[in-house]
Design brief:
The protein is α/β, with parallel strands linked by helices. It has two domains: 2-180 and 363-393, Quinone Oxidoreductase, Chain A, domain 1 (Alpha-Beta Complex), CATH 3.90.180.10; 183-339, Rossmann fold, CATH 3.40.50. The chain has helices spanning 2-27, 84-90, 95-101, 104-110, 174-177, 181-194, 215-226, 240-245, 259-264, 279-284, 303-310, 312-331, 346-357, 374-383, and strands spanning 41-47, 56-63, 72-82, 116-117, 121-129, 141-145, 157-161, 165-167, 206-210, 230-235, 250-253, 271-274, 295-298, 336-339, 365-370, 389-393. Strands 3, 5, 6, 7, 8, 15 and 16 form a seven-stranded mixed β-sheet that branches. Strands 11-10-9-12-13-14 form a six-stranded parallel β-sheet. A three-stranded antiparallel β-sheet has the order 2-1-4, with no helix packed on it. α6 packs across α7 and α11 (303-310) packs antiparallel against α12. The chain starts with a helix and ends in a 5-residue tail after the last strand. Residues 1-38 have low confidence and may be disordered. One of its GO terms (biological process) is nervous system development.
Length: 398
C-alpha cells in the first residue's frame, strides 16, 4: 500500500513540478534558475560535511522531494529565513541527537545525513497532499517551521507534515511570513509549554525578557503584549526604538550601567524568558516572585552540547542530572526552573496567524537576500547583534 501511495505521489508531483518550473521561468524570475526539462531534481543549498561557511554549496541536481507518508504535503518554497540554529547545524552542533531522529528513508538512501539541506522557516504554496491530509489542498498559501531533523527549506520544494503547517496570515507577504514561524514557535514553546502562560491567564503578568531584540525576543514581546502582559525587556540602547515600537512597557539598556542595579529598581517578575544564558541565569532568578508560581525558562541549554560531546546515553544522563538539580534547587525557593525547546506546531501557528491578522504582531525583517546569496545571509547571522530576521527570497515576488 505504501508503495502504491508513493508511486502515485511521485507521478502527480512530477506534473506539478513541471508546471511550477514553467511558471517560474515565465515571470517569477530568480537569480538562480532550476534545471530545465528534468522534473526529478531541484536546486537547493546543501552541505556535504560540517564546517565553516565554505561548506555551503549550491546544487542544481538535488533529488526532488516526494511524499513518503500520507500525512505529508509538498510546499513550493517562496521564502525562507536564516536562524542561529542553521549556523549551528552547519557547524555540526546537535548532530548526534538529530541524526537519531532523521528520516531513515533519506539516511538509508544517502548513506548518511548528507547532502543536508538547512533552513527551518518556509512560506509558500502547497503543491501536493498526501492521501490522509484533510485541511490543505494544492494551491493553499501556507507557512511552517520544519523541525531540524528533517531536510530544510533552502530549496525550491520541501516536504512537511500537515500538523506542522498552517495557512499563511492573509495580511503578510511570503517574505514577511517566512520570518516568523521558527521564532514564534520557539517563544510559544517557552512561554506556553514551559511556563504555562496563555491568553486567558496572561493579563497583568510581569514578564522579563533577556536578549529581547533578536528573533525570539521580538516574537515573545509581541505575543505577550497581545495577551495583556506587562513586558520588561533587556537590550542595548540601539534596539530601544525597535522595542518601543513593539510595545515593550519597560526597557533596560544593559550598556548604561550594571544590570543588577537597574533590576533592583523594578518590581519582581512572574516569568523570565532568557535568550542569553550564562551570567543572566543567576541574575534573573533573583528577581522572580518567590512562592507565587513564578517561572524561569532558558532557551540556552546544554542538552545538544552534552550529547555531541559525551554521546547520546551519557549526554542525556548528564543533561538530566543538570536539569533535575536546578529544578529541585529553585523549587525549594518557590521558583519553577525550566528549559525551553522549539516545538513544531501547526495549531499554534493557527493562533499566531490570528494574532498577526488582528494587527497585534508584525514581522521584524532586518534584511532580505536573494536565493543566490544564502552564504552571505549566514555571514550576517554569524556577525550577531540581530535587530530582527534575515530572510531568503527563493522565488522573487512579482
Amino acid at each position: 500500500m505504501m508503495s502504491m501511495v508513493c508511486n502515485r505521489c511521485v507521478s502527480r508531483t512530477a506534473g506539478l513540478y513541471r508546471r511550477a518550473v514553467i511558471a517560474i521561468k515565465a515571470g517569477k524570475g530568480r537569480a538562480i534558475h532550476g534545471s530545465p526539462v528534468r522534473n526529478t531534481i531541484m536546486p537547493a543549498w546543501v552541505i556535504d560535511k560540517y564546517g565553516s561557511n565554505d561548506v555551503l554549496r549550491f546544487n542544481e541536481n538535488v533529488l526532488f522531494p516526494i511524499i513518503h507518508y500520507p500525512n505529508e504535503v509538498i510546499i513550493q518554497v517562496h521564502a525562507a529565513s536564516v536562524n542561529p540554529i542553521d549556523v549551528n547545524m552547519r557547524n555540526g552542533y546537535g548532530s548526534a541527537s538529530l541524526n537519531m531522529t532523521r528520516d531513515p528513508l533519506h539516511v538509508k538512501t544517502a548513506g548518511s545525513e548528507f547532502p543536508l539541506i538547512l533552513g527551518r522557516d518556509v512560506s509558500g504554496i502547497v503543491m501536493e497532499c498526501g492521501l490522509a491530509v484533510q485541511y490543505f489542498k494544492p494551491g493553499d498559501q501556507v507557512w511552517a517551521a520544519v523541525p531540524p531533523w528533517k531536510q530544510g527549506t533552502f530549496a525550491e520544494f520541501v516536504v512537511a507534515s500537515a500538523n506542522e503547517v498552517s495557512l499563511k496570515p492573509k495580511s503578510l507577504s511570503h517574505t514577511e511570513a517566512a520570518s516568523l514561524p521558527y521564532v514564534t514557535l520557539t517563544a510559544w514553546a517557552a512561554l506556553v509549554n514551559s511556563c504555562g502562560l496563555k491568553k486567558e491567564t496572561c493579563p497583568g503578568k510581569r514578564v522579563l525578557i533577556f536578549g529581547a531584540s533578536g528573533g525570539v525576543g521580538t516574537a515573545a514581546t509581541q505575543l505577550l503584549k497581545a495577551w495583556g502582559a506587562h513586558v520588561t525587556v533587556v537590550c542595548s540602547g540601539e534596539a530601544q526604538t525597535l522595542m518601543n515600537d513593539l510595545g515593550a512597557d519597560d526597557i533596560i539598556d544593559y550598556t548604561t550601567g550594571r544590570l543588577q542595579d537597574q533590576l533592583k529598581t523594578r518590581d519582581l517578575f512572574d516569568v523570565v524568558l532568557d535568550n542569553v544564558g550564562g551570567t543572566s541565569e543567576e541574575l534573573a532568578l533573583q528577581y522572580l516572585k518567590p512562592w507565587s508560581g513564578a517561572s524561569y525558562c532558558t532557551l540556552v541549554t546544554p542538552f545538544l552540547y552534552n550529547t555531541d560531546r559525551l554521546g547520546i546515553a551519557d549526554g542525556m544522563m548528564r543533561s538530566g542530572i543538570t536539569l533535575g538539580s536546578k529544578v529541585v534547587k529553585h523549587l525549594c525557593k518557590g521558583i519553577h526552573y525550566r528549559w525551553g525547546f522549539f516545538t513544531p506546531s501547526g495549531p499554534a501557528l493557527d493562533e499566531i496567524g490570528e494574532i498577526v491578522d488582528a494587527g497585534k504582531m508584525r514581522p521584524v525583517v532586518e534584511k532580505v537576500f536573494p536565493f543566490s546569496d544564502v552564504p552571505q545571509a549566514f555571514e550576517k547571522i554569524e556577525a550577531g547583534h540581530a535587530r530582527g530576521k534575515t530572510v531568503i527570497e527563493v522565488i522573487n515576488p512579482r
